[in-house]
Specification:
Radius of gyration: 24 Å
Distance between the termini: 63 Å
CATH class of the largest domain: Alpha Beta
Number of domains: 3
Number of strands: 24
Length: 468
Amino acid sequence: MKEHYDVVVIGAGPGGYVAAIRAAQLGLDVAVVEEAELGGVCLNWGCIPTKALLRNAEVVSLLDEGKTFGFSVEGVEIDFGAAIDRSRKVSQRLVKGVSFLMRKNDIDVVEGAGTLSTAHTVEVALNDGETQTLKAKNVIIATGARARTIPGIEIDGERVMTYRQAIVLRDLPESVVVVGAGPIGMEFAHVWSSYGADVTVVEMMSRILPLEEPDVSQQVARAFRRRKVNMMTDARVEAIEVGSDGAQLTISGEKGEQTLEAERVLVAIGVQPNSQGMGLEEVGVENDRGHILIDDHMRTNVRDSEGAIYAIGDVTGKLALAHVASAQGIVAAETIAGAETKTLDYEAMPRCTYCQPQVASFGITQAEAEERGHEVKIGQFPFRANGKALGLGNYDGFVKIVADAGSGEILGAHLVGPEVTELLPELVLARTWELTPEEITRAVHAHPTLSESLAEAAHAVFSEAIQA
């Protein structure tokens, strides 16, 4: 293993390992420092294992719809632990894939915790107890984030958990309170309720999925209520008391103070950056409450004629999404190599929630567009009028396009319904290359497909939807 590199990446999550691969592709000598597992939270504890669990939940939910599809099921045994085991196998397979990619691209992997002693020196406390010093022209910080907790409330990992403990919990809780109705909270609520757990979601804001279009939030709320999931909005958790067989929560809200009891509690109120104890202050890297400040090329303020310190992913506080971290990693690597790259438009980044119904969006909402002074045109099309959705028996939801009335620019898109996380890329591509709804309507969409709803929503921008 070398001691001098063009690039040392601290952290091997979806930002770090992608940055390392892209830098190696561009002919740079690269090392990655990772204390835990390759793939980071995403592959091991977040994006990937939850999607495996959500697939299991989808299959279990279909068993309850036998009458719709003309079958009946008796004597079925549902093993939640087996679902967890499958999700772990899926994660492990991808982690092995990342390890292979490191070898394929001649990237050195250093197992340990990295800290900055100078702008070009990374000290690694190796997992085997030894230390190693790496010299680098450029350093990319990709240390990610961890679950944010409620001040004064202890996460014991047993009764009160974060996603880290919840993703490996093999025993289905009889009852669970999910604190936070963002993507993480809603996805776990969907999985547990699909398997029969009594689930209550507590959200401090006035609606679930508060960053999404209000109509989208309402659609998801109706679906969850039909599945007997209790949702409390405008509600704040004041205290949690843990007992031998469960937890008691004190909730304040419009109805005053209430008490909830549950076997388990999941705290899913967002993430905070992993930037402490890395030597940022010692080398002068600027940050805002732990989020490392960067420019459009992912460079921090620390740079010289030899190179620079870069930061990507959740630690920057831009958007805590795996694909954003990967995109930032590519930009950082290309900047270091002097290759052509592209400035990222964070507002155009896709956002997805994989509960049922699925939610996918990018850009701004109708209200935000109007607040910014846009005269807007709205195109909305319901999946209830889509033949493929009807055939699937999954037709709740809609596609909504927010466009500027004058220029035709797509300002945002908001989808809720069947497989919308797979439909969103067409609209993201249109936004990226400045296509208008009219140009989307001229692209022939195969019939019958869910994607026809995108074309119909584009037609609806001009009040010309064909099928509705």
